[in-house]
Design a protein that fits this description.
Elements (H helix, E strand, L loop, with lengths): L1 H13 L3 H13 L3 H18 L3 H22 L4 H27 L5 H13 L6 H62 L3 H12 L1
Helix pairs in contact: 3-4, 4-5, 4-6, 5-6, 5-7
Length: 209
């Protein structure tokens, strides 16, 4: 297993992508091989995720910033293959985030929790065909969705109908209140402007004189 993982890492470092291009530029300036640079970067990041302050923020930035940047580039590009790739990532990321919301309370205090989370997110966004988002979507998410698509559509339709009904009800109540207030306010204003009977009598008496 270790030999297979090592082979995949070496294959990844020989591919042309954002990470390898960046490591290649550093290699040209320093003379240090990409493999050593990658090991050093992974080691420093791993130690910080274990002992450093703000490991959760760093982990979330790793899982969000790079994919968000390339998702925007995918939207702006005419090619739709990269759109599908990053949509798949965000689907898996969303499901993982929901699951993490419930498990984080029990798992966050483990020493290697953020290291494992960071490695998982890196696997999901890795610019290779066997990245985590593709594997999990193909083997887990898609089969589950296809089996329960009709039920999910029914629930979503029902919730949408209830939401629309609630929104219409709230809108009617707001409009009714506004109309009611508009009817009251002018009447109150007119009542304040009308003279009292005594004032009216005095005014007519003064005119007769």
């Amino acid at each position: 297993m270790f030999a297979k993982l090592k082979e995949r890492v070496e294959k990844f470092l020989n591919e042309k992508n954002f990470v390898t291009d960046f490591l290649g530029k550093i290699e040209e300036k320093t003379g240090i091989k990409k493999k050593i640079l990658a090991i050093g970067a992974v080691s420093v990041t791993g130690l910080y995720l274990i002992f450093g302050y703000g490991a959760s923020l760093l982990c979330n930035l790793i899982g969000f910033v790079y994919p968000a940047y390339y998702s925007i580039k995918a939207i702006e590009s005419p090619n739709k293959d990269d759109d599908t790739k990053w949509l798949t990532y965000w689907v898996v990321y969303g499901i993982f985030s929901v699951g993490e919301f419930f498990s984080d309370i029990f798992l966050y205090w483990f020493p290697f929790y953020y290291v494992g989370k960071c490695l998982f997110l890196l696997w999901c966004m890795a610019p290779v065909a066997w990245n985590g988002s593709q594997v999990l979507y193909t083997r887990v998410v898609r089969p589950f969705f296809l089996r329960h698509e009709a039920a999910v559509d029914s629930v979503v339709s029902d919730l949408s109908g209830k939401a629309m009904t609630a929104a219409e009800s709230v809108t009617r109540e707001v409009l009714h209140t506004l109309v009611k207030n508009k009817k009251i306010l002018p009447a109150e204003t007119a009542a304040k402007e009308l003279p009292s009977p005594s004032q009216s009598g005095e005014s007519s008496h003064e005119k007769s004189q």
